[in-house]
Amino acid sequence: MQKTVMKNLQTLNVLPILALATLFIRISGSTSLRLLLTGPDMAYLGSRVTFWCTAIDSSPPVTYELIGDGGVLIGTDIDLEGDRGARFVLKVTATSEGSYHCTAAAGGSTGVSNSIKLTVVTPASNTRVTSEPFPPVAYEGSGFVLNCTTKGSHLSYTWFFNRKEVTSNTSPAFQLSGNKLVMGNVTFEHAGSYYCMATSRVQDTERFSNSAPVQLTVKVNISKPRISFSISKEGASYHGNVTCWSTRGSPPVNFSLSLDDREVGSVTATESLTAWFPVDMVPGLDMVPVGGKVKMEVDYLYRADSELAAARLTCQVSRGTFPYVSWLFNNSVLPSETHVDSHIQPALSQYAVADHRRTLFLAKLGPEESGYYRCKARDSYDDSGPWVESPDMLVRVTDRYHNSMPPATPSTETPQNAPKTTIEAIAIAFCCFLLLTLAACVGCVYTMFDHEQAHAPVATTNPSLDALPLSSPQSQSEGNPADTSSTDSSVQNQTVEITV
């Protein structure tokens, strides 16, 4: 009895060991299969994908299972031949994204494969361009952002400006950031057509979606306005006009006119940068007729290398609210009346007027432009009104003085009296110098003769002879200075004509 009990106890002690051994054998058998799972890691939404699970060196039949995230069973397949493996075909949906692996069992052995993470790609659609700010209008110097808005995932973006691709290398003025095209400092060159393209790629397959083009308008900031006045005469009535304009800007532009800080009118210019305001005017009350003295001044303009470039003639009218200035060269009116002065100086080949014709530029300087210039002015609103004129001023430009131009001098001669040449002036000056030298020599000889006579004995007995030699030198002295002054004056006039 005691032996039977001891034998049962020994049997009970061996059973756990046998159970552990059996479990070990089963585990060893389950990991003996080597499995390989192949398939894509990216797929378009709505497409079909295929996974293959293969047991290497396994005996048939082999049972395969495809497992998704969370241990969800996707599908089962049996390979009866042992060399085919299992094929699983899936329709890709939004929930298909995740990790996949397969398991297999054959002849009491099992195995687990590697994992594949599947990414679901949504192709781009409904692509469009939006702007910050909206609508797509920007002023010079401001910031501007374009957004490529689309539906989809795993996208890349390409921008096009006037149908040319925008890259960081070829277009440094643009900044590419994700789906944004950033312009930090908008210039007028940024105006144009923009569109974007959203692209996705899976293996060798690309899908893209283009937006509709968006037109960016860049407006130029309005420059400081300028103002001018004009008046016209119709019968016995006078009509005034105030013109306001800017040289830069983008219409529409709103102009307002103020009188003594009180707004008296407002105009919106939709197609230009100019606005006109009609006003009532009364001569003598609202304006001063042209009159008084007219003065002309000449300034010479030089380049950086000291080469004479142009001459600027300015006409200054002492009185007058609305003067009309006309320029004359050798008694001929210039430039042609067809060259009407505008707010922007006209570019003429030879002459140019500015500041409402008050300034004349001689853009070309040479012998043909040498001569007598003057300006005259009258009331711009009265074509039959009287003129007031400046004196003639001689401006002579020769090759000798092209690099060094002294200021012009008003001439007292008429334009018909042509100035003497340089050789004639030198000859006259030389003759005057000889005349002065001869007079000085005669005076010295006569003084020496008079000094010898003063020491003679007869000189003490005849006082009248003391006055006699004085009268002749005095007469000669009175004549010579007059001649000399006249000659100097002549030389001086000639010098002015030569150097001007």
Helix content: 10-25%
Shape: elongated
Based on helices, strands and strand pairing, what is the structural class?
alpha+beta
Low-confidence stretches at least 5 residues in length (pLDDT < 50)? 21-30, 337-348, 411-421, 454-500
- Range of strand content: 35-45%
Number of beta strands: 34
| Assembly category | single chain
Write down the overall mean pLDDT.
77
| Rg value | 54 Å
- Alpha-carbon distance between the two ends: 157 Å
Report the biggest beta sheet as strand number plus sense, adding barrel if it closes.
6 strands, mixed
Number of helices: 3
List keywords for this structure.
500 residues, alpha+beta, six-stranded mixed β-sheet, 3 helices, 34 strands, 20% helix, elongated, disordered C terminus
Structure characterization notes:
This protein has 500 residues and is an alpha+beta fold. Helix content is 20%, strand content 42%. It has three helices and 34 strands. The chain has helices spanning 2-30, 422-454, 464-499; strands at residues 34-38, 42-44, 48-56, 62-67, 73-79, 86-91, 98-106, 109-112, 116-121, 125-132, 137-139, 144-151, 156-161, 164-166, 175-177, 180-183, 192-202, 205-210, 214-219, 226-234, 237-245, 253-259, 262-269, 274-280, 291-302, 308-319, 323-329, 332-334, 351-354, 359-362, 371-379, 388-389, 393-395, 409-410. Strands 2, 4, 5, 7, 8 and 9 form a six-stranded mixed β-sheet that branches. Helix 2 runs antiparallel to helix 3 (464-499). It is elongated, with a radius of gyration of 54 Å. The termini are far apart. Mean pLDDT is 77; it is low at 21-30, 337-348, 411-421 and 454-500.
